[in-house]
Amino acid sequence: MTDVAAQVRSKTITWEDPLPTARLGATMPGIEYMTAIAEGRVPAPPIAAHFGMRWVRIEHGEVEAVCEPDESLYNPIGMVHGGVAATMLDSVVGCAVHTTLPAGVGYSSVELKVNYLRAIHAGRGEIRATGRVVKEGSRIAFAEGEIRDVDGKLLATASGTCVLTPVR
Q1: Model pLDDT, residue 2
Q2: Which positions carry the signal peptide feature in this UniProt record (predicted)?
């Protein structure tokens, strides 16, 4: 054991059942569905509650999401875990693709490559993830993303590929 005194903290996370929302989303064009989530007319996916992530801009082929990381997202060496950046980037890359899809078509990430450029720490304000489609397709779509801090410094980048599939 160490001499470091443990200071216990807690965090409560709540979310809504995602399946009715996903079924609704399958009936809507992707841009309308994502806009409804951003405007709070449709519940956000549960992963957003875990990170405190919210969508702030939705356009055809481009989305932005923000979150303010807290220490509950830290890794063992005292900085925000890289998986948080990867999850945000996967989300904005996929959701950017989703804005280009008609009702009844969904997507799944096939590949995501993340470059970590700077450490992310709690208490330094919101981080902003932007995703944009590079190439729309009928079976595969390509997109890229980035995360910046409140000062506009680039923290991480990503490129991703999504496969497009009918939603059942």
Answers
A1: 58
A2: none
Interaxial angle between packed helices 30-38 and 82-98, expressed in degrees from 0 to 180 and rounded to the nearest 10: 130
Q: Are 155 and 118 in contact (CB under 8 A)?
A: yes
Beta bridge partners of 131: 63, 145
Does some domain include residue 121? yes
Residue in the block written with tokens 């496969």: 163
pLDDT tens-place string over residues 123-142? 999 999 999 999 999 999 99
- Examine residue 8 and state whether it is found in any structural domain, yes or no: no
Asked whether the beta carbons of 55 and 64 are under 8 A apart, the reply is yes
> What's the count of helices (H) and strands (E) in the chain, helices before strands?
4, 6
Percentages helix, strand, coil for the chain (3-state, rounded to 5) are 25, 35, 40
Q: Is the pLDDT of residue 7 over 90?
A: no
**How many CB atoms sit inside 10 A of residue 132's CB?**
18
**Residue-wise pLDDT tens digits, 47-94:** 999 999 999 999 999 999 999 999 999 999 999 999 999 999 999 999
What is the H or E stretch that residue 19 is in? Answer: helix 18-25
Range of the domain at 118: 18-166
Say if residue 129 is exposed, middle or buried (CB neighbours under 10 Å; 0-12, 13-18, 19+): buried
